[in-house]
């Protein structure tokens, strides 16, 4: 009797996360955090699930208990581990951090760890559409009274500038400072502004934002050095509102400056340009004897591309429309096949498509497409010209980087 053996195959589909958040509360002397005399420790952040790629991690302090003596604690992050070191004889009693882990091409974390001496800095960045940033304290060293504030002073297309206030008689007591910068698009945050307070302090109630995190990084401290420096933050959610409070448990009355920000867990999607108008002309033209096979003009920049190669160009807001002029040398007996992106959301028929036959009465085909964008953002393009084709791809930065063909012309 023949036996039939049935095999069942199970395909394990790995589910990855792209964003996560949490807090780390174990840097406490009651848990063996004996942070003095060059004590050092490396800790690992535990995520709620698996990232496909190593995420960028942004951490900021929300609690500390440090003495009114010459004190230093250092801090740094490598991938999803962070390192803390206390270099002085004074005991650092506790530190707590909130963290965000993000695997996404729309954000960037810049690290400035253990800066000694503190000073203004300029950093390069690689984001196309960054126009705002969040800065948070990660470490500090002082030998007396301090009064400082970190602030973002300028963001350009390729750099970000950070300044620190320099109060006479106090700035020299700030020996070391560390911070991280989270660069994002303003489309992805609600900035409630700077909050200046002395603990104990409780904020006014705010509406609880859906799919957003409330982050409250410390950016400035005014401290008299008269007593132990202590601070603890707590968020309180009641129904559809939230408040946050900062408390102290020692006699000193420092002043703190924090930034209150809602950060979206669902970043705005960058989409390709869509062709809204298109004019095509065909004619017999002998005005130019050595016309290139393809010529691409971009009217908003006066750029012209007519040689074989690959080129990159960027357009910055507030440009909303981009107009191309495409000239194609039409060779008798050949077909010129063209397509132009018309609908990002359409499951089919995403492109306008045309097929023109070249004959003795046509030697030049001209295309005049106008592309528009859904959101006012910066745009980056790659233009490729070969002997038989020209193509414009838009580079899109979302959770991953992709290229999207917005126009393509081939001679067949």
From TrEMBL:
<protein>
    <recommendedName>
        <fullName>H-type lectin domain-containing protein</fullName>
    </recommendedName>
</protein>
<feature type="signal peptide">
    <location>
        <begin position="1"/>
        <end position="15"/>
    </location>
</feature>
<dbReference type="GO" id="GO:0007155">
    <property type="term" value="P:cell adhesion"/>
</dbReference>
<dbReference type="Pfam" id="PF09458">
    <property type="entry name" value="H_lectin"/>
</dbReference>
<feature type="domain" description="H-type lectin">
    <location>
        <begin position="42"/>
        <end position="102"/>
    </location>
</feature>
<dbReference type="InterPro" id="IPR019019">
    <property type="entry name" value="H-type_lectin_domain"/>
</dbReference>
<keyword id="KW-0732">Signal</keyword>
<dbReference type="GO" id="GO:0030246">
    <property type="term" value="F:carbohydrate binding"/>
</dbReference>
């Amino acid at each position: 009797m023949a036996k039939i053996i049935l095999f069942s195959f199970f395909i394990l589909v790995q589910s990855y996360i792209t964003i996560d958040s949490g807090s780390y509360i174990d840097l406490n002397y009651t848990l063996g955090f004996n942070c003095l005399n060059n004590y050092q420790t490396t800790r690992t952040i535990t995520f709620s699930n698996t990232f496909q790629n190593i995420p960028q991690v942004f951490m900021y302090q929300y609690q500390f208990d440090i003495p009114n003596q010459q004190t230093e604690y250092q801090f740094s992050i490598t991938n999803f581990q962070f390192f803390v070191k206390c270099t002085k004889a004074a005991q650092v009693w506790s530190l707590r951090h909130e963290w965000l882990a993000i695997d996404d091409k729309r954000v960037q974390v810049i690290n400035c760890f253990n800066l000694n001496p503190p000073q203004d800095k300029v950093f390069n960045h690689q984001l196309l559409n960054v126009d705002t940033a969040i800065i948070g304290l990660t470490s500090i060293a002082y030998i007396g009274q301090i009064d400082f504030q970190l602030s973002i002073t300028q963001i350009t297309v390729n750099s970000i500038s950070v300044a620190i206030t320099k109060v006479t008689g106090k700035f020299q007591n700030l020996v070391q400072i560390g911070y991280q910068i989270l660069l994002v698009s303003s489309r992805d945050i609600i900035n409630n502004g700077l909050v200046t307070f002395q603990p104990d302090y409780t904020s006014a109630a705010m509406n609880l934002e859906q799919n957003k995190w409330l982050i409250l990084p410390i950016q400035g401290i005014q401290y008299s050095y008269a007593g132990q420096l202590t601070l603890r933050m707590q968020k309180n959610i009641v129904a559809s509102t939230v408040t946050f409070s900062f408390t102290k448990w020692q006699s000193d009355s420092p002043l703190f400056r924090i930034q209150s920000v809602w950060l979206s867990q669902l970043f705005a999607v960058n989409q390709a340009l869509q062709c809204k108008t298109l004019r095509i002309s065909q004619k017999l033209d002998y005005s130019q004897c050595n016309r290139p096979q393809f010529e691409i003009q971009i009217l908003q920049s006066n750029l012209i591309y007519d040689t074989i190669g690959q080129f990159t160009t960027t357009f910055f807001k507030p440009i909303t429309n981009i107009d191309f002029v495409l000239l194609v040398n039409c060779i008798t007996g050949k077909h010129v096949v063209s397509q132009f992106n018309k609908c990002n959301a359409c499951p089919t028929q995403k492109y306008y498509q045309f097929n023109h036959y070249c004959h003795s009465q046509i030697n030049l085909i001209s295309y005049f497409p106008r592309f528009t964008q859904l959101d006012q953002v910066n745009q980056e393009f790659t233009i490729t010209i070969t002997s038989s084709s020209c193509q414009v791809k838009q580079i899109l930065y979302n959770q991953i980087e992709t290229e999207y063909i917005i126009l393509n012309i081939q001679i067949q």
